[in-house]
Amino acid sequence: MAKKNAFYAQSGGVTAVINASACGVIETARKHKDKIGKVYAGRNGIIGALTEDLIDTSKESAKAIAALRHTPSGAFGSCRYKMKSLEANKREYDRLIEVFAAHNIGYFFYNGGGDSADTCLKVSQLSQATGYPIQAIHVPKTVDNDLPITDNCPGFGSVAKYIAVSTREASFDVASMSKTSTKVFVLEVMGRHAGWIAAAGGLAASADCDLPIVILFPEVAFDQAAFLAKVKEKVEKYGYVSIVVSEGVHDASGKFLADQGLKDAFGHAQLGGVAPVIANLVRENLGYKYHWAVADYLQRAARHIASQSDVEQAYAMGKAAVKLALAGKNSVMPTVVRTSSKPYRWKVGEADLSRVANVEKMMPKNFITRDGFGITAKCREYLEPLIKGEDYPPYGKDGMPKYVQLKNVAVKKKLNDFEVK
Amino acid sequence: MAKKNAFYAQSGGVTAVINASACGVIETARKHKDKIGKVYAGRNGIIGALTEDLIDTSKESAKAIAALRHTPSGAFGSCRYKMKSLEANKREYDRLIEVFAAHNIGYFFYNGGGDSADTCLKVSQLSQATGYPIQAIHVPKTVDNDLPITDNCPGFGSVAKYIAVSTREASFDVASMSKTSTKVFVLEVMGRHAGWIAAAGGLAASADCDLPIVILFPEVAFDQAAFLAKVKEKVEKYGYVSIVVSEGVHDASGKFLADQGLKDAFGHAQLGGVAPVIANLVRENLGYKYHWAVADYLQRAARHIASQSDVEQAYAMGKAAVKLALAGKNSVMPTVVRTSSKPYRWKVGEADLSRVANVEKMMPKNFITRDGFGITAKCREYLEPLIKGEDYPPYGKDGMPKYVQLKNVAVKKKLNDFEVK
After folding, report:
1. Which of B80, B185, B399 is closest, CB to CB, to A297?
2. Predicted model pTM
3. For the segment A268-281, what is each residue's pLDDT rounded down to a tens digit?
4. Which residues on A lie below 8 Å from B301 (Cβ)?
5. What fold, for B156-301?
6. What is the enclosing helix (H) or strand (E) of B213?
7. Domain locations in chain A as residue ranges
C-alpha cells in the first residue's frame, strides 16, 4: 500500500486545549513517517477541505508543533459548518473525495464535538459509498462535555478549572466588600443545554473552603421565588453570596432568562447576557448591591489556568487517533475511560462513531442537589479529577505567555475552485 | 516609651495582592516585638476601628499569615467609607482616639487608594490636634494605579497581567472563529476615570505576537465614526479584532456609553455594561458577529495569574510601612521608585501624605497613540515591568488554589457601642 497523507481539521468552538490534540496528532504522525506522509490541516476546518485550502504542517518546526500543546484556540482556524446528509449534499462529499484523491489523503482526523462527530461518521461511510479508501477518526473536543461514551471531553476540564478558580477568587472579593458594599456577585458561564460548566462553579467551595455558592442550571426550570429565598438565606448567613448562572437558564415555559426584550433609548433591541438580568432581579426584590461578570471566550481560551488532566487527555486523544488509524480503524473515536476516581486513573478507550454522533450526554439528575441550586458529592467526585493539576504555559521576559502563531503555509492547489454554499 | 500596639485596616476595593501587603505589615511587626505589641486589624476597614471591632492577628499562625501573600481579597474585610474632615466629623475622630487609647494603639497602618490616603492624612494630624500619640502610615493599594508620586500602585500590576493575558487568549480564540463566525470580541475592563487597565489590553499584542487590538480609553472622547472605521480596518486586514473598552468610556458631552437607558419588557431600567453597547454598535453598523465579556471582579481577584513584580511590591510596601513607623515617621506613605526600565529595577521610597491625598495621577498623554485607540512604545515600556514574572499560589490535590480564610478572632471590647452614621 502506498503511503497516504493525513488530513486534520478543527471544528466548532475552540478550547484551551484543542491545539494539544493537534500536537498529539502531528507529533505521533511524524513518528510514523513510514506509514503516514504529510499531515495537511484544513484552514478553517472542513471549509479548508472543501475549498482545497490545505495547510502543510510539515513546514512547521518541531518546536512550533510542540508549542501547540500550550497554545489555546485553533491554530489552523475552525469553523461552524455542519455538512448535511450524503443524500442531501452529494456535491460536497464528492468534492471531499476529489480533494482527498488529489492530495493522496487516506486519513481524516476531525477534532470537534457532537456535530463534527456526525460529519466524521458520514466521511467514514464515503469509503464504502465511493470506493475511495479513507479512514475517518474523530478526536473529541468540546467545552460542553456533552459527548457520550467518553468519561469527559478534552476542553471541558480547563473551562471547569477556570470557572471554579474564578468563582473562588470572586467570592473572596465580594466577602471583603459585603459589609458596606457589594453583597451579591453573579458570574455568567457557557452551557446552553447542559449545566456541566455551571456545575464547576460549585467546586469553588470545598470542605476546607466554606463559601456560599448558588448555581442556576439549564436543567432546572428557573423558580424566581425559590431562587430569591435561597439568595436571601445565603446573604443572611454569610453576609454575601456568589451566583453562577448558565447562559441557558430558562423558565418553566422554556423562555431564556437572557431574552428580556431589552431596548435602548432608540428602541433598538439589545442583546444582553443573563448575568445582568439575575443581578437586577436580586436588587429589585432584595435590595442587595451587586456586581456581575460575563466570562464568555475568556473561560474557554484561558490556557494560563488549564487543567493538567485536560491537557494530558487532549494530547492523548490526538495521539490515540493516529494509533487507531495505524491499526486500520475507521469510524471510531478515542475516549477517556475512568478506571478510578480516588486516586484518579484513566486510560484511552475507543467508541464507534455511530454510537457517538447525535447523542448528547446530559448531567445525571443526581449531580444536582435536591433544591436545584448546588452540586452533590457525586458530582464533585466526578468533576474534581478533571481540574486536577496545573499545566502552565511558558512566559516571556515581558510577562506574557508564549503562545505560538504558526506559519500555516498553504499547499499548492491542484483543483478548480469550489464554492461552499 | 511603653510598647504600643498597631492597627491595620484595608480600605476600598480589594485586589489580588492587598493581603500581600497585610502579610508584609504583620510579618515585619512580628519581627519587632520589642517595639510593636500586637497588630489589631479593623474588621471591615475603618468601620472596625470606629465600632471597636478589632481582630487580634496574633491568634493567627505564622503559616496562616504567610498564606496571605498568595490570597486575593481583603482577609479582614474592607469597606467603602470616607471620613469627612476633622471639623465636620469631630465625633468620629474622637471615637478613633478613644479606641486607640483603650487598646494602646500607637501605629495606624491604612491600606488603600486615594480616599484612604486622605483619611490616613487626617488621622496623622490627630496626634497634634489631640495630644494622643499616633503615627499614621499609608500603605498604597489600588487597581486604578492613580496614586501620585509612587511609580505604580500595588494591585494594578496583577490586573494588568490578567487583562493582557486574557486579551491575548481571547484574541487567539476569535482569530480561530473568524472565518465563519465571530469576528469581533469586546472585553470590558475597570477604570472609570483613568485608562491604565484598558492600556494593559495593549500588551496582548507584542513584537513577537501580532494581534489586532483596539482600545477605548476614558481619556479619549468616544468618536463613533472613527471607532467604526478602525474596527473595519482591522477586520479587513486581520479577519477579526479584539476591543478592550474601559467602563468609563464616554462621549464628548461626558455621557457614559454604558448609560443607554436600557429598559426591559416591563419598562424597568436595566443596568448593562458598556461591552454589549459597543458590540451592538459594531453589529448594527458593520454587520460583524461578536462576542463580549465583562471581567468585573474576576480581573482584580485573579490571584492565580498575579504579577510577580506586583506581589513583591505589595509585600515590600507593607514591610516598609512598619519600618517607617519604627523610624518614628508619621503622615507618610512608602512608594515604588523605578530606577530603570530595562532591566527593571526599583526601590522603596517615601512620600509625604499631604502630597498624596486627593491627587489623582492620570495617564500621560503620550501613552496613547495619536489615533486614540492604542498604546505607545513609552506606555509599553512603563507597563511591561509591572506584569513581569509569575507568582502562582499553591494548589491542593483537588486542583484548587489554597487561599487562606483566617480565624479573625475579635478583641474583647472595652468601650460602649458606637453608631457609624
Report:
1. B185
2. 0.97
3. 555 568 999 999 99
4. 166, 169-170, 172-173
5. Rossmann fold (3.40.50)
6. strand B213-216
7. 4-142+307-357, 156-301
